[in-house]
Amino acid sequence: MKQTLIISLVIAVMTLIGYSIYALFMWGAPRLIYKQHSCDFANIDNVEMHAEIDIPRIDSFDCQYDRTSLTKTVCFYLAPRKETWRRYITVNKFIRVPENTLPDTADFRPSVIADASHAYFTTEGSYNDERWHTLLDSNALRLWVTIHYGKQ
């Protein structure tokens, strides 16, 4: 009887510890990722949380973070998709940029954008002091994201 009680108590304590660790991880990990601004740790997750878009499968990316202006600029080189971009564009609320027009923004340098005739789509938004702007080139399979984190 005493041994059964000890075993039950050990199982209960281990279960409580397990649930506590799980809850701490589920609460703490997203906050850690959200506050991360560098390009080194959880870059894709951070961009997804701040720019409110899903980053599709990628081949590689170039990322720069400016600590002075608190700005992250990323170019994702997207992996080819079997399906069309239509669903991705709709779900992530991209708006088509008119043909032969480049976005009028300092976030995306024209020297980086190769051809104004490509199929460009854009989104932008803001939250408190933070703002973001994205540009998708569905032909060249590139997605540029600029996040201005605002005051910290």
UniProtKB/TrEMBL annotation:
Transmembrane segments: 6-27
Key words, A-Z: Membrane, Transmembrane, Transmembrane helix
Protein name: DUF1254 domain-containing protein
Species this chain originates from: Rurimicrobium arvi
